[in-house]
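Record 1 of the preview.
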Amino acid sequence: MGVLDGIRVLEFTHFISGPLCCQTLADHGAEVIKIEPPDGELSRRSLPFYEGQSLYFASLNRNKRSVKLDLKSELGRRAVERLVKTADVIVINYAPGVPERLGIDYETVSKINPRIVMVHITGFGNTGPHKYGTAFDGIIQARSGIAHLTGEKDGPPTMVGLYIADHIAGFQGVIGTLMALKAREQTGKGQFVDISMLDSMVTLLAYHFAEVQLLGVKPFRKGSRFNNNFGGMFATKDGHIIVSPTTEKLWDNFCKALDKPEWTEPDSPYITREGRIEHAAELERLVLDIFKERTTDELVALFEKAGVPCGPVRSVEELLEDPQLIARGALKPVPLSDTSHMIAPGVPIKIAGWEEAPATRPPRLGEHTAEVLAELDFSESEIREFLSI
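->
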């Protein structure tokens, strides 16, 4: 039994942020009905493909039922109205103005079901001068300042290697859903939740705004090095390692592990954090000279024994064999068919005493249309009419 058992979610979404939000709710027991247009959700046609299925789509749509509806038709509108009456939550990530055109905006659906929670995920939010702006992940990374802070010091701005803005907005959508359900429990009234991808990414900037405002600092790219201390990512004999000797004790342990006690002598330029930052370039050269003679695994073993935080830089291929991820269920087998499966990210939130939903394969387009319509008391002739679309 999942912690969200009994919660019915209607999903009108595409690509990443909305599907991820709804999949997360489904993983914890919510019933998610994915409403798709007659030609299917757009990411069903997104690369990469395996045996004719989009792995992009499959990674974000387990544990859902698919209903194919034309929201511009009278039949589609009738079905949506009945679905809204039965639902707790609607999640949408269409651009502002689209829900109104489709008749699934909050003002409309709340008249049908005053207790409905609507979560609307957009690029820039439902207010502000740029709310109708086009938003894709890379655009949000650029506009949020994240790209400006990512990359080597002397190189150009760089995007993060994943669709981080989409994913963070999806997680914020989950948080917003749960908070709105709690508010409904307290007030008895439905809620509208406005999630912006740009707002969500800007939360990552933490203290940087205050740096600019109060200290006059201009945050800039530092590559693979830490902002306010010595440490970061370094090349080894066969790969890369990240190491973090950020306190005085950890620095002492780091130097002992490398057999460099002179770096901790009172007259060493590296004895203080400020000194290590000031002399970072020469200190990095010294460290790299040592690291390039040893493998990543040798250095990890050395620093772990010395109590210095560190970690190997792993490839995705290596992650598939990672014993920690396997033990935590972070690598989740998801069926694609009766004979094949894919590995997808698992459920990161573990709640003691509650189960996560077993992974079901991503639904075929409209696979559950007849089943769901029958639950809504449509007649057999009406269902046949729906299926003919």
